[in-house]
Design brief:
Number of strands: 7
Distance between the termini: 100 Å
CATH topology of the domain at 47-131: Nucleotidyltransferase, domain 5
Number of helices: 3
Strand content: 15-25%
Structural class: alpha/beta
Helix content: 25-40%
CATH architecture of the domain at 47-131: 2-Layer Sandwich
Radius of gyration: 27 Å
CATH class of the domain at 47-131: Alpha Beta
Length: about 140
C-alpha cells in the first residue's frame, strides 16, 4: 500500500483585520496623548507691537514668574545655568537661541540671564513675545 501525500493549496493571504485593529488602537492613543505632550513651562509672555519671534526649534531659555530658569523644560539654578549654558548653546543652539520671560519677572533677573547668554558668544538671542491686540 503506497501512501501518497496530498498537497493542500497554499494560502498566501495575510489576515489584516488584526493589524488594522492594532493600528486604530495606536492612532487613538496618539490622538489622546499628543495634546498632553505639548506642555512646557507656563509663562505669561509680554505683549509687543512688533512682530514677535516664535521659537520653532533651537534652544529655549524660560524665566517664569517666580524667577526660576528653565532650559527647554529642565529647571536650573542661576549658578547651574551660568556654568552649563556655554556647553548647551554649543551643542543645541545651532538653530537659534530664544529667551522667554514672564511679564511679571523683575527686569534685573531678565538682564542677568541675558548677560549670561551673551557672554557665551551667542550672536543673536531672540526675545519671544505675544502679539499685541489692536483695538
Amino acid at each position: 500500500m503506497s501512501h501518497r501525500r496530498v498537497r493542500l493549496p497554499l494560502n498566501a493571504e495575510i489576515n489584516v483585520v488584526s493589524l488594522i485593529d492594532v493600528m486604530m488602537l495606536l492612532m487613538v492613543i496618539f490622538m489622546i496623548t499628543a495634546p498632553i505632550m505639548q506642555g512646557g513651562v507656563d509663562v505669561a509672555l509680554p505683549k509687543a507691537e512688533a512682530k514677535p519671534l516664535e521659537p520653532k526649534s533651537g534652544l529655549v531659555v524660560t524665566v517664569n514668574r517666580a524667577g526660576q530658569i528653565f532650559v527647554d523644560e529642565t529647571r536650573l539654578t542661576y549658578n547651574e545655568f551660568r556654568a552649563s549654558f556655554a556647553a548647551l548653546a554649543a551643542t543645541r543652539g545651532k538653530d537659534g537661541v530664544y529667551l522667554r520671560a514672564d511679564q511679571g519677572v523683575p527686569y534685573g533677573t531678565v538682564v542677568q540671564v541675558l548677560a549670561v547668554m551673551r557672554s557665551t558668544g551667542v550672536p543673536d538671542v531672540g526675545l519671544v513675545a505675544e502679539p499685541e491686540e489692536i483695538k
